[in-house]
Design a protein that fits this description.
binds manganese (II) ion; 9-stranded mixed β-sheet; binds oxalic acid; disordered N terminus
Length: 643
């Protein structure tokens, strides 16, 4: 039967190619097609009679002209043989297996170390569906431009077919994607980050919906790099990059940009949020989801270790996810969330016994390290870790490195790239929640927004309502740190931490959030936190790290109606007494500064929010204009009251 189907496809494709009078050499075309058939039949259990899937793979193979097409089946044998192959070509490098069992090393091209937002596009028929928060291209132009780069780009390479599920296979939350890629590094990362295997094809059936993801390294030329999303076609084309955020198509591309589009149409939320459970001494676990812009410590918070004082009382933290949350309204009328991923793709530098001991434990084995420093004996090192630097090694960019190296301007030269990464299975995390892959998700008691604000935002405050909470998310901002591009201290608005990831017009996105709130019978309360307030000398006022659990505790107490709060113009704030500060070395004077609301500062903020809102024009929902005016009135009233 399979044979007959193959003949049928062969004929169909021959006709199509001839009709288009494509310039492909027919011989080559046959080679691609035949090897596709061979490997499709050869791969263990990777059988599907999904005609559209077969057609699409063949169409992409005809364009990219790989020498082979190989299905990825999720098996240990195939993974090991791919590792071996990549080690033999230098795509991967070995690590000391005694020190780093099951771990491998990869170095990206020097020009390819982070997501390239300027080369990332949403391709929709109408420009206004993507703007103002995205780069836009028409689908025709997108397919044409990227197609020209893809054309013939896999000659001499293998195209891997990865069927994957974001979310537990078969869960009502989950979505299926298929990524075609010419990179073994991508295959190995996808095997950690997503669910891959014959079960995915079984779930897809003969005609199930899937996201079509095509990735090709091409020549890794920055001038020929494009990360394109076609939400109207449920398609992603990424070419010219080998960096995770651009090429692990299940992550930012599918689980945020494409999924946010789907979520709007289907009535759910795809968010850039961690999910964590907090267990109280009575053994009850309550869950929160929190959005912070990149580089604000989401992974650290998700894996928080309680300070001794709270641990002794019986508090525990359970990690569900560190980056992405898909949220739907459950039958119980509550908002429920899943982490669609199965791995962590985290930043390595700064990971140490204080900032994140659970991450350190997670990455000890079966981890892919990208762009950290490599020593000559197969060890690795990174800045702000626990270990002193090795006497020498090879830096992330392949150059020789030793401690104290400086460039011509006297700047420190990094051994590990500041955005070097670990890819590790979530199941290796000591704090992984037993509920992390519950197909029904976990119920969310509180949604938390946050950012780095050195002066303005108090440690924590609660919104007055869902609508006000959406306003807090829509106006969220973070100050640039030294490690980021741009002016130091400059405030960057990053609504819901989704600015680089919302796959459609952000004004419509705000409306969607407001609509969702009306549909949730028992909505979570919405909070804002800021761990980063500083004194005049730039020292942090709040100790952060595990102590952040004290703030989460207040948040959950509020959701349970247990704690009083002070009504201020910006929201409900904790009185200092209502925060559990026992055993914490922070003076009352410092605490007072941490919860201070300075009216003059907020009035300045208001002007900036107005500017921020103006970019959404007519698309800005009236409810958010109302919230802005209410805040203005409350601040005015408060200023008069103070005199
Ligand atoms: C990430 C990011 O890589 O948000 O998770 O940039
Ligand atoms: Mn992220």
């Amino acid at each position: 039967m399979l044979f007959l189907i193959d003949i049928f496809f062969f004929m169909e494709y021959t006709i199509k190619v001839n009709k288009k009078s494509d310039t492909f050499c027919k011989l080559k075309f046959c080679k691609t097609l035949c090897s596709y058939h061979n490997t499709a039949r050869g791969a263990i259990n990777m059988k599907t009679n999904h005609k559209e899937l077969h057609n699409w793979i063949k169409e992409m193979a005809v364009m990219c002209q790989p020498d082979n097409v190989v299905w990825v089946d999720g098996s240990r044998e195939q993974k090991e043989s791919l590792e071996k192959e990549a080690l033999s070509t230098g795509e991967l490098m070995p690590l000391d297996q005694n020190k780093w069992p099951g771990c491998i090393y990869h170095r990206t091209a020097v020009n390819d170390v982070a997501r390239t937002e300027n080369l990332t596009y949403i391709c929709t028929k109408r420009k206004e569906d993507a703007l103002p928060n995205n780069n836009w291209m028409s689908p025709e132009e997108g397919y044409k431009k990227a197609g020209a780069i893809f054309k013939g780009s896999m000659k001499g390479r293998t195209m891997y077919v990865i069927p994957f599920s974001m979310g537990p296979i078969g869960s009502p939350f989950s979505k299926i994607g298929v990524e075609l890629t010419d990179s073994i590094y991508v295959v190995l990362n996808m095997l950690i980050m997503t669910r891959v295997g014959p079960e995915v094809l079984a779930e897809l059936g003969p005609d199930g919906e899937f996201t079509r993801g095509l990735h090709g390294k091409a020549d890794l030329d920055l001038e020929r790099r494009l990360i394109l999303h076609f939400p109207e076609d449920n398609t992603i084309w990424s070419v010219g990059s080998g960096y995770g955020g651009n090429v692990l198509l299940g992550k930012k591309c599918l689980a945020l940009r494409i999924a946010s589009w789907m979520a709007r149409n289907e009535g759910w939320l795809a968010e850039h949020m961690l999910i964590m459970g907090i267990e109280n001494p009575a053994g009850n676990v309550e869950y929160v989801a929190a959005a912070f812009p990149s580089a604000c410590g989401k992974t650290n918070l998700a894996m928080l270790v309680p300070p001794d004082f709270l641990k002794d009382q019986g508090y525990r933290v359970w990690t569900v996810g560190d980056d992405i949350a898909w949220l739907r309204i459950g039958d119980d009328g509550r908002l429920r969330a899943i982490n669609p991923e199965t791995g962590f793709f985290g930043v390595v530098p700064g990971t140490n016994a204080k900032s994140n001991p659970n991450a350190l434990e997670t990455i000890r084995k079966n981890t892919i390290f990208t762009n950290v420093l490599l020593t000559d004996d197969g060890d690795i090192w990174w800045e702000q870790g626990d270990d002193p630097p090795p006497p020498e090694g090879t830096a992330w960019d392949g150059t020789r490195w030793k401690p104290g190296l400086e460039d011509r301007n006297g700047n420190y030269i990094h051994g590990a790239h500041p955005n070097s990464r670990f890819t590790s299975p979530v199941t290796q995390c000591p704090s992984i929640s037993p509920e992390w892959d519950n197909p029904e998700g976990v119920p969310i008691s509180a949604l938390i927004f946050g950012g780095k604000r050195s002066k303005l935002a108090p440690l924590v405050y609660e919104s007055f309502s869902w609508q006000h909470g959406v306003f807090l998310g829509a106006t969220m901002a973070s100050e640039r740190t030294a490690a980021q591009y741009g002016k130091l201290g400059e405030v960057r608005r990053d609504p819901m931490a989704m600015l680089p990831f919302c796959g459609y017009n952000m004004g419509d996105y705000f409306s969607h959030w407001l609509k969702m709130g009306k549909r949730i019978k028992h909505p979570p309360r919405i909070f804002h936190v800021n761990w980063f307030r500083t004194d005049e000398n730039g020292n942090f006022l709040w100790p952060g790290f595990g102590e952040n659990l004290r703030v989460l505790k207040w948040i959950l107490d509020r959701t349970n109606g247990k704690k009083e709060a002070i009504k201020t113009p910006i929201g409900y704030l904790p009185s200092i007494n209502s925060l559990d500060l026992d055993g914490l070395d922070v003076t009352t004077a410092t605490m007072e500064r941490l919860v201070e609301v300075k009216i003059a500062d907020w009035e300045r903020e208001l002007q900036d929010i107005k500017k921020h809102f103006s970019q959404f024009g007519e698309k800005l929902p009236q409810e958010l204009r109302d919230e802005l005016h209410s805040l203005e009135r409350r601040l005015e009233k408060s200023r008069h009251a103070v005199g």
